[in-house]
Amino acid sequence: MMEQIRRQIPQEEFDYQTLLHCLKDYERPRDKIRSLLKNKAVIRVKKGLYVFGPDYSRGPFSRELLANLIYGPSYISLDYALSYYGLIPERVETVTSVTCGKNRVFLTPVGRFTYWSIPLDSYRVGIDLIQLGERRSFFMATPEKALADKVCHSRGSDIRGVEEFEAYLLGHLRIDPGELLRLDPKRLKEIAQHWRSRKIQLLATFLHQNRGRDR
User: Which terminus of the chain has a lower count of CB atoms within 10 Å, N or C?
Assistant: First the structure.
């Protein structure tokens, strides 16, 4: 049975309807699904969303893709995206996302997924579609948007002027100075307009000034 399912589902992440379709010739397909879950041939990430168990996987599943599917609309951002882009040194286990829905946290068999709510106008700008191949892809913030989201999310940070950003970015967040120079101040200015955030405007100004000092 699993060989048949694997022939029909090439990807590692799939939904309930896809699995049900694979079992349509069985008299009680839902009973078969329960059996697959019990035997850990299939792992339920959340209701209606699955990955293959270790005995039947052909490669690693994508937690980034799952993050988009678990709760949406959403895109990956904040600490996870900053780590993904190599802006911060820490490996981030929780997949952090941004949504225009409600704040949510999901504890699943494949990890912890958090979602931070922002206004729709702020949500719309600064999102990339990352291709994984095999018609698999996920939405993630650009490096500039991930940093902007992080700055706005860190409400406890006392940043009132451009000069305070150096201590915050290099000291508090431990962002790599070389990677910081790769960020585009113009993109941050556009993001600041959608965020309507003075902090992001100050961040864009700091990056512009920092680039000037480096030349």
Answer: C
